[in-house]
Please model this.
Amino acid sequence: MEGKDNKHINTFRQSKVKPGESVEAHLEGWIGEMMGSGDKTQHNGQFILTNERVCFYRKGLLGEVFETIPLSKITSVETLSLMGYRVVRLHTSHDELAFKTFEAKSLFDAANERLEELRRRPASEPGTSAAAAESIPSKLKELAELRDAGIVSEHEFATKKAELLSRL
Model:
């Protein structure tokens, strides 16, 4: 269901994933229009589907582009697949995100199928976020054990520890 990992998806996983959130699918492509300006500027990056939201993410030298739509706010989804060019257009009551890609049809279709599955599921139980927050101390303990065993470096430990603590 996922395209190959690149710097955008790796950075997203490290800095944008919320507690209890998981990346379900991602595709490489772009938003905006070729030669567009303003809010129509073309940005190359990743379409990312998580169990909670759909995002477009691009990390560059001069900053980042991050657009997100909660799954619960999506009112309709349109897709187009024509001779290798594919578009998924997500609508909300007041917004739209059009993502374009040349990814394989099988990856594109699998991502859209997973999107529809997630949209159809019942709303998550209250307290899910609290349960995820409670597991952070145990994750920190496991991380320390990995560091002590030499599996992760001190730098990797410090980076992940900071990320986990920011979620509390």
Residues 7-120 form a domain with the PH-domain like fold (CATH 2.30.29.30). The beta strands are 23-31, 43-50, 53-60, 63-70, 76-82, 85-91, 96-101. DSSP finds five helices and seven strands in the chain.
